[in-house]
């Protein structure tokens, strides 16, 4: 099936190519592509955004529950707790960060944007957007830290089922509105008169008659609580008073809003007993002042007495487990770390007994044997509250969960517990939990718990059974690369390194090899007779016997016939590396990156770069004399930021097939410990490809560190160093510049190579470099482009090209720019100035061979005939000034005077959508035409053939020569052709990068897009010319040949007889 | 088995002395006149041969307008018909030139060797030129169809480039 390269070139040029109709067929969806819908890592910093269970009625007494969470990817998501699938999700815009959400019955309300500028309500079952209302202009919103300070949503109690829900919305810290949840109509609104005052309102406590608005007032050295009351119906201000208090947060970093709680009671779910009394229970404020718990009941007139204080017990922290509002319960952490469940005492009289400790979790004090506890609150079907405590026991190496139910055991309270076999080597540590409980019999409590882990996994456990795990860290992939897989079993070819073999030896080997021949023959005949060849749609499908078994039993992945199955290695900032099967998206392996010496104090490991240091075809010089043949390997360069602000550069050398540590330091299944190669931050990392592949790292002092640091690699670098050039970005944020460097070894000063600057890319003072996009390197099939008149435009194939995008926002008018620069000499090959969009530079670019494509948003319109819109510009560089000018740019020295003899052909087009990222396809030999693959702002992945982006599309009627070149007439608007959408009907949101990799078939390129979602497909820009069509009728071909053979056999004697007769009777 | 007629057995002496038929003139068979007229006819025969050789030599040029018309009618596309004509135009000159001596042998003067290149040199030269003219027309047609590798683009696939002297790390 594979043809020699020259053959392909001939084939390609000889075939009259019509406009490629490379549309995705419906039957190919799910076969050639896969899509993984993700929601992002839950925001666990605030109870207003953290995951929680929500149970709602779907009619006829049937209830359904979902896990609702806001995530770091700016998504509001509802996850089905049964199978872990995404019930629905809403992706917020980047400039509209979600600040909080509140649930009530079948409505979820969110506030997002600066100061809570936008209110949205969603149907909890379907995720349909019910209401979207702009509360204030974005530029008038105040930014608070944390994001949910000064914001609040509360549902007005007592609305009957028929009328729509009423919301109380607090935005910007000083504006309270009563809004209808369906229509968005503002019933009334109130704004604090003195907006410049230091009072930030942050919590709403609604009752059926009165609304209490609690704020924080900044006093000289601490925060004071401030309360304002309103009439629920009319919104008239009743009273506004400071509460004599002085909040002391648990530490300097915790926000003051976490140091107080507002307790209120819903009408008890058990309506038979205490309906009347609970209605009258007033809301209550609780706060910590000098580690002492203070409490105060609230009344509409705020004519409160002196706050009650619970002296004698020192508390460290108040934990809102989501039960303070409506259930009057919370967890207070004592000075020694023990957790106490405290709640409003409905029956008690007098201020001293108004709040009581229901339960103190045993053995919850700080101890080296277990971790500090995480507390979670939840409800059962009947609406009774439960409080859980989760901790990790270092002794048992298991997690334990204790659930306290205050109403059970005849009101005495019941505690049940179990242990979870949580896999800490796979998922890090538990950082958040949300529970959902059921109480099937009086002394039995069943708990479902949703855990969020430090590696970004979301797990659901039903008692001690893990139900599902969502690896949400994949929504934040930092670096990802394709790694080719080796063939299944190496048949026959055994390369003997030990010189020539004797004749006898060769004969003996060949006789031995011949024993497989009968088997091969049988296979061949069978394959030929049945026609069961691998086709492009079936080659990656796993045989059905293997689907149910785990990866451990199926062994390592192997390459398929066409190389469509590759390993995708992806590293995430959550400190986890994944190996994904590119044919299905299945996680083959995953490893948690260790923190080294910083394990005690905590750290984050941020991936910087990922290099494939050994591919399938590479000979390993490190492993001499065979033995370990070795699979593909990758080196992950990371920066570890410890909690004590120390930064180290750590290298992880990973076997791409299994995820094992190549250095054999960490056993498989354990936490992956890296190599601390630089104790300090890293400036740049490169991969030098000579005889060996060496990772070159540069520290702050431009010293070179090698990995692997062996003699062979050192010798390689030494040999290459005189001709080695690299650019380094220098300067801090706001004034990033670029300097070219070379390596120098001065044995008298240091035994390391040191980079020294050779050129500076001098930009105006207010211009700063935003991105550096290296040219995509790959095989170049042709060094020129043949025109219609048989002359040649020689491509400018300078291998050192890179693209820089810059911004000069302080200049007048603010401008962006794009440069194409020679990385060895620093000379500018191409330069264009672009307009800014909304005050920022957002230029996306890709460069390959001699072709640069960039896109930007043009909001300038200065006259008639101009319009604002998304532009995509295609630039091609050719040698000389006219056709047939040749300077041999691809092997010319960068320091030749002729490097700037280049002509740029460019043309700009209008695209209907904004482009978030773009790249080109890549194929094995570079013969196939290159498509531009880009992600649009409307969540699609599209391809655009090069023909449409040809900068030589003539702006006139086509001549014969143009037709011969297959040029098409220039049209400014690139039509939005739905058949060029690669992503079918999937929503592929917030794509940050698209990675392409060649398959074994020259015609086909793999395309992997990551961002919030993961999407992989394969494209054939010039059609699948090197593989037979799936509809090819092999039976017909074989039958025709057989019929012809039979015809020959039958007619041959007839013809012979006839010719004899002719001779005889002539 | 074949039969042969044996005329030798016929006795002719009986009929030798018969008088000629009435009106038969014996003067037409006198010997003088045939000797004079034979020299004139030989010269006219040689000039006829030379004339015919000239006609033959410019024959390819005479057929050119017709061939040009055929080329024009066959169009510029690479099709079986136009290719056939072009092949004919390209092949015939070579065939003709290869067989130039044989072609001119019937016109060779009686005293010259028929197969020598030096017989009828002028005619042969003209014949050669006319054939080259046909070839040129064929090549011109090839060029107009884009079949001649004249541009740099035709030799692009054979161009190669080495490795650059510098290495840039990006």
Provide the descriptors you would attach to this structure in a database record.
heterodimer, A: 1066 residues, mainly beta, Thrombin, subunit H, 4-stranded antiparallel beta sheet, 10 helices, disordered N terminus, B: 170 residues, mainly alpha, 5 helices
Describe it.
The complex is a heterodimer of chains A (1066) and B (170). By secondary structure, chain A is mostly beta strands. Among the domains of chain A are: 42-153, Thrombin, subunit H (Beta Barrel), CATH 2.40.10; 366-473, no CATH class; 763-911, no CATH class; 1033-1066. Chain A contains ten helices and 63 strands. Chain A has a four-stranded antiparallel sheet, with no helix packed on it. Chain A has a four-stranded antiparallel sheet with strand order 2-3-4-5, with no helix packed on it. In chain A, strand 28 and strand 29 form a beta hairpin. The two termini of chain A are 52 Å apart. By secondary structure, chain B is mainly alpha-helical. Chain B is 53% helix and 1% strand. Chain B has helices at residues 32-57, 59-74, 80-98, 100-104, 121-144, and one strand at residues 167-168. The model of chain B has no long low-confidence stretch (mean pLDDT 81). At the A-B interface, strand 42 and strand 45 of A face strand 1 of B. Strand 45 of chain A pairs parallel with strand 1 of chain B, so a sheet runs across the interface.
Topology:
The complex is a heterodimer of chains A (1066) and B (170).
Chain A: H1 5-14, E1 34-36, E2 52-57, E3 63-70, E4 75-79, E5 86-91, E6 98-104, E7 107-112, E8 118-123, E9 129-134, E10 152-155, E11 166-171, E12 175-180, E13 186-191, E14 199-206, E15 210-218, E16 223-231, E17 237-247, E18 260-265, H2 275-280, E19 284-289, E20 292-297, E21 308-310, E22 315-319, H3 324-327, E23 329-334, E24 339-344, E25 355-360, E26 374-379, E27 385-393, E28 398-405, E29 414-420, H4 424-427, E30 430-441, E31 444-453, E32 457-462, E33 465-471, E34 479-483, H5 503-513, H6 517-530, H7 551-554, E35 567-572, E36 576-581, E37 587-592, E38 603-614, E39 633-642, E40 647-655, E41 675-678, E42 682-689, E43 693-699, E44 704-707, H8 711-720, E45 724-730, E46 737-745, E47 753-761, E48 768-774, E49 784-786, E50 792-794, E51 801-808, E52 815-822, E53 828-835, E54 844-848, E55 851-858, E56 869-879, E57 902-911, E58 915-920, E59 931-936, E60 941-945, H9 960-964, E61 993-998, E62 1005-1010, E63 1014-1019, H10 1034-1064
Chain B: H1 32-57, H2 59-74, H3 80-98, H4 100-104, H5 121-144, E1 167-168
Protein name (chain B): ER membrane protein complex subunit 4
InterPro entries (chain B): TMEM85/Emc4 (IPR009445)
Biased composition (Low complexity) (chain B): 24-36
